[in-house]
Design goal:
alpha/beta, 6-stranded mixed β-sheet, 5-stranded mixed β-sheet, 15 strands, rod-shaped, disordered C terminus
Length: 635
């Protein structure tokens, strides 16, 4: 850009000189064009009405001595017109070595009007094409500025939540102006480019007021401070410093960038305020749900996510991750599934995120949500885990939360840190596998001595221990007597009484470990002492699983667990259990059905009875109760 300050240096052939000392603001006086006048033209035609705005006026040609008075009078009128037209300066040609031609009155008037006076010693031909050259320079600068503004607009964020937008604009501004850029508030730095700009410009921000304007001290960089929010109470400042002075075009670009930065900063503030309000409302709604205040929670969420809380059933998920990663976890989960679930950080635990997924139908069991959460948790870091509950009534979400927390606690102990329901967890998978193999093989070793016998036993016993012999024979396509003979043989070899429910549970569990989870026992462990079943059941995983199974039953006003213990003590027979408890058989059966509902287990199956028996013993703090009968076997 050509200015009055740079023109004498850029075009030395024009022989330009300021009539008085070069003023500081000359560098900011941009030249829009060059308008040439001859003295005779000024005298004959007067002031040119077609003088373009911002043009440098050149009066070139000799002025006869007899006309100098009239010319100076016209120049005084011309200066008045040039001020209205925004002309930066007036240039008059003089002969080589001649003194400046302006009388004191013209000089004083020019100073008063802010129009600079210059002389040129160059002949007229040196000025030919100067106007076109200025126009070419301005065109190139306009194209450059258009490109810069286009690239500036591209730095604007596509989303209000883009926290890097201010930094990107600061980086762009630093590159375009070859300057140091700092965007700051009184309490924090929003962006700095380069990183050292914060240290370099912090003192300038502290010492200068927003209206101080540029600092042109020769010993330091030129500095510009611009308020990004002049009409609000928020004191956000853009500070820019560089060694070279700022041109008017640079300042204009700065003002454009500052306006965009102000808009982005305002958008960020409003987005954060709306986001914080939304998070607070979601947290309040979740707390209301957990307190059983379903109607209030629905009213809170009605305008935010219409219809989200309409279903009468829901699942609860719990994510635990490192405290530093929790906000990111909430944000990423919200981006992925926020329109289908209620997500909020747990106010009682700085590492935990709570998620409620309303379930609209029996077919919609949340499989897609579960899969997405499992995928997300895998990206949160090595110390992240996910637990889920079954489907609960929305009035019982506190119970669902207990189950989800238990599942998460269990998941944190697993190689695969996702457990979507403790109730659905398989007991065998929770046991320490190598030790469980040793225990099961030792228990079943009498059956495994003969290969043919073992094959028949592993085929027959799982069904024969679970179903009546007639049903087992039909399922196995064997004669009932064959099934009975094999069962008697197994009982004799194992010194077990399969009329006792505990013996059937023990052998069935060992068979499942060996046949369904078969794995080689490391050679270094084959000679070690066989672990007791109580040892296998004392692991944190099994403890968590057992507590989660019995917790809903404990919350029931009926003493369901006492009924369960009596029923198991009488080998799953209702009549003697009812007599021992002083209850009717109908009541005992009702209690057992309630247990099935609470534990989500079928007590007509051996696996369901097994989970009831073991969870009762483990949750009571004495897993060895179940193993009392094994002393005869191990001895």
């Amino acid at each position: 850009m050509l200015t009055l300050g740079s023109l004498p240096t850029d075009k030395p052939e024009l022989g330009l000189a300021f009539v008085w000392d070069k003023p500081k603001h000359a560098q900011a006086k941009e030249i829009i064009g060059v308008f040439t006048l001859a003295p005779e033209q000024l005298l004959d035609d007067g002031i040119p009405g077609d003088l373009p705005d911002g043009s440098l006026v050149l009066v070139i040609g000799a002025v006869p001595f007899r006309l100098q008075g009239r010319i100076m009078a016209e120049l005084e009128r011309l200066l008045q017109f040039m001020r209205r037209k925004g002309s930066p300066g007036l240039v008059v040609s003089v002969g080589s070595g001649a003194r400046q031609p302006f009388p004191r009155s013209v000089i004083d008037q020019a100073k008063r009007l802010g129009v600079l006076l210059l002389t040129t010693s160059a002949p007229a031909e040196k000025w030919e094409g100067m106007h076109e050259e200025v126009q070419q320079v301005r065109l190139r600068l306009a194209e450059r500025r258009a490109s810069q503004l286009s690239s500036l607009v591209k730095e604007l964020p596509a989303q209000l939540s883009d926290s890097r937008a201010v930094q990107r604009i600061a980086d762009w501004l630093a590159q375009v102006l070859d300057a140091q850029v700092l965007v700051s508030e009184p309490q924090r730095i929003l962006a700095a480019s380069p990183a050292t700009a914060a240290e370099q410009l912090a003192q300038a921000v502290i010492q200068q007021s927003i209206d101080a304007g540029p600092t042109d001290a020769p010993s330091g960089p030129h500095t510009q401070l611009i308020s990004l929010s002049p009409t609000s109470a928020v004191d956000t400042v853009l500070a820019v410093a560089r060694n070279a002075a700022f041109t008017e075009a640079d300042l204009q670009l700065l003002r454009h960038a500052a306006k965009l930065l102000g808009l982005v900063d305002q958008a960020h503030r409003e987005y954060r305020a709306a986001s914080d309000a939304s998070k607070a409302a979601r947290s309040a709604a979740l707390e209301l749900l957990l307190d059983g205040e379903v109607a209030k929670a629905r009213r809170v969420m009605a305008n935010m996510v219409p219809g989200l809380m309409e279903p009468d059933t829901a699942r609860v998920f719990v994510i635990e991750t490192e405290q530093a990663h929790r906000d990111s976890a909430v944000s990423r989960c919200s981006s992925a599934i926020g329109d289908q679930v209620l997500i909020a950080p747990d106010p009682r635990n700085a590492r935990r995120v709570l998620i409620v997924h309303p379930v609209r139908s029996e077919e919609d069991n949340g499989a897609a949500i579960s899969a997405e959460l499992a995928h997300l948790v895998g990206t949160f870091g090595p110390r992240s885990s996910l637990g889920g509950s079954g489907v609960y009534s929305v009035t019982l979400l506190a119970d669902a939360l207990h189950e989800a927390m238990a599942a998460q606690s269990f998941a944190a102990l697993q190689p695969e840190p996702v457990v979507l329901s403790v109730h659905a967890s398989d007991l065998v998978s929770l046991l320490p596998q190598v030790e469980a193999q040793r225990w099961a093989r030792h228990l079943l070793s009498p059956l495994m001595q003969d290969g043919a016998q073992w094959e028949s036993m592993r085929e027959t016993l799982p069904a024969a221990l679970t179903y009546p012999y007639t049903v087992a024979a039909r399922l196995l396509h064997l004669h009932r007597n064959t099934v009975m003979r094999r069962v008697r043989t197994a009982a004799d070899l194992l010194r077990m009484d399969f009329g006792r429910i505990a013996d059937r549970i023990t052998v069935a569990l060992a068979l499942e470990v060996v046949t369904q989870r078969e794995m080689p026992v490391p050679a270094e462990l084959t000679g070690t002492e066989t672990p007791a079943l109580a040892h296998l059941l004392a692991t944190p995983q099994v403890q968590t699983w057992a507590q989660a199974l019995v917790r809903p039953a404990r919350a029931d006003r009926r003493d369901l667990l006492a009924t369960a213990r009596a029923w198991l003590a009488f080998d799953a027979h209702v009549e003697p259990a009812a007599r021992a408890l002083g209850l009717s058989e109908v009541t005992v059966r009702a209690h057992l059905r309630a247990l099935e509902n609470h534990m989500q287990r079928d007590l007509s199956t051996l696996s369901g009875v097994r989970d009831l028996q073991i969870s009762l013993d483990v949750a009571s703090g004495n897993p060895g109760l179940f193993e009392n009968h094994l002393s005869r076997v191990v001895a």
